[in-house]
Amino acid sequence: MRTNTSKPFNTFLDNHSDEDSSSSSSSSSSEHNSTCRSEGHSISEIDVENLDESEDTEKTTKDQSCGKKQNEKAEVIEVLESSFQSCSETTPRSIDTDSHSLETASQRLDIANPLPDVIDLDQSPSTNADVNEALKTLDNIILEVSADTPTMESETKQHQGHLVVVAIDFGTTYSGYAFSFTRDPSHVYMMRKWEGGDPGVVSEKTPTSILLTPDGQFHSFGYSARNNYHDLDPDQARSWMYFDKFKMILHTTPELSKDTLIKATNGKLYPALTVFGLALKYFKDHALQELSDQSGMKIVNEDVRWVISVPAIWKASAKQFMRQAAYEAGLISHESPDQLLISLEPEAASIFCRKLKMYQLVPELNEGKPIRSPKFASEEAMDMNPACETLKEESRYMVVDCGGGTVDITVHQVDKGEKLIELYRASGGPYGSVGIDIEFEHVLDKIFGKELMEHYRQKCPMGWVDLMVAFESKKRSANPDKSSPLNVSLPFSFIDYYKRHKFGSLEHAIKKFGDKEIQWSRLGMLRLSPEAMRRLFIPTMEKIKQAIGDVLNNRGTRDLQYLFLVGGFSESPILQQEIRREFGSLLKVIIPQGVGLSILKGSVQFGLDPTIVHVRKSRMTYGVGVLNKFKEDQHPAEKRMVAGDTEWCMDVFDKYVLTNQPVALGDVILRSYKPANQNQKKIQLSIYFTENPNTNFVTDAGVQKCGVLTLDLEESSQTKLSRREIQTRMIFGETEIRLSALDVCTGRRVHATIDFLSN
């Protein structure tokens, strides 16, 4: 979408228009930059230095209270650990709190002076391009800053206040959680088995389905929601709200906001934030209850570090939406935002797959060959030996996460200390297993009529759910090595509905369709041959193969040795066979046993050590729209505007980071902003993104507005408002961006937020 909004002049004032102000600002900024460079401190630590001593006292009291609570419950850990059955195939790495920290960008760059006010990029030093080369951001959410926002250096130390890490895999089709105790990070435990599962389908997850009463109250989730909805009287079902596979709305909604609505199976609209919040609250309550039951004592929310996994290709608004839902669910509060970590699904899978053993892999069909890398053809031993003998320092591999809604692809290289470096920005698309459901729906439309099927969904929502549940079971069990047909049960309500509205039989409609691979069973079933089922997979698999091929054809992804296939959709033998057939000659395709749990287990390990992935690539180019001093030899005439005695260029795209640019944990980018007039109470800047790193103006094609940065100002008795400088510091390289702001004149913190849901 092309954005044509120009930035009003009165939002900014040139930081260099006043020599005294510029000199003062430069001195203050240099002092803070020096602190960041020499000590490697994160933003939050620098900002706190000039706060009142009362804040330090409050922090000390909080730490003491947290330590006391830890001592009270530490003795219970051994009881908790002995109460759970360990996942023997999981071997996560231990936390190394003494691991070497990556030097920040401000350490790597010799910045003699602070960055100038972004209003006047023309007076920026020539090293500004170098700064952009070293600093970049992710397409992630930016949380509201509070006094308790954790610093980068203290990130791994935050576990001192948590007894357990609980990771929630909120999937499109199925969801679940796993956990590990911070004193025993080598063991990851799965939740208790879910009751009421699909016949013949063994799953350690539950369907992502939620049932609400007619007045919007939570009733049930997962298998319970599905079964309760099925048992409702048909007339009641029309007023109850049943949602399933609703996660994708966060990816497909063009302008996602806190007010976005979601449609239930009966056609009713309800706030999506409420639905997601209720779902997360269910997992929170379920996990806390399970931990409490097993330990014999009450485990409360403050004891838990929560982790929620999301697709890496999600936009910033979708990721912020999940964090906002976590607030709604009570997982975190604005006083403790650090209690939640957002993990990226392919990263989590990569963390888990690094430590796989040979016995934990799905064997190749019809082959007895040992698994080995075609690039390094040495034989690899079986059993307890690592799956990848060559997965050592500088080894490169691809992770393809095929889920219910999306496919995420990431490429990693093993760095020193077993850390991971992202070599290519996360890619993929909406190519998950729901695409097979859509193909099946198209077949039904062709056989029985699209209009009739749409009416049936509306009039008999329960029957439609039953029909798709029956298909889901057959889809998951489809195997290319089996020749027997797959029978999909058709609900009696559908058979009756068709007879009443078409005045004919289903058998006649199927025969008239004329596909020999699709037949009618007199037992009331739609019989699909293995070939008919495979045809439903083909469109989605072709998109997945194209996405993988695009990554392999990039110059930055050469010399890859392995392809790890993970995610719930990767459980399908049909998909496994196709990926191995297509790419097996280029690199070794490795599929873990229990492939659908890879992300869940890896997310737990990420929660125990968030620094494992210490260099990432930006998916987009991000920046803000500003005014710049007009130069005839650089700026187009149509962008020229005059205010007072100064000529300005409108809509300049001040880029923070560039597409596919590497950024490390702790990398910091500085910007200074100044009130345009003495009565100004806040500074607001529109944030834009684009895939093209060479974009110059926010009105260029392909540039979209994605959020707003707000700096709240307060009266200052030490200096005139017109001379004040507000310096923002952003830390990039995590799965989320950390933001803080400082009034350079007073040394006090400025309330700063970035909102991607108010576009």
TrEMBL record:
Keywords noted in UniProt: Stress response
InterPro entries: ATPase_NBD
Region (Disordered) location: 1-71
Source species, domain of life: Eukaryota
Basic and acidic residues bias spans: 57-71
Keyword Nucleotide-binding: no
Low complexity bias: start-end ranges: 22-33
Acidic residues bias (residue ranges): 46-56
Claim: Transmembrane is one of the keywords in the record: no
Composition bias, Polar residues: 1-14
Name of the protein: Heat shock 70 kDa protein 12A
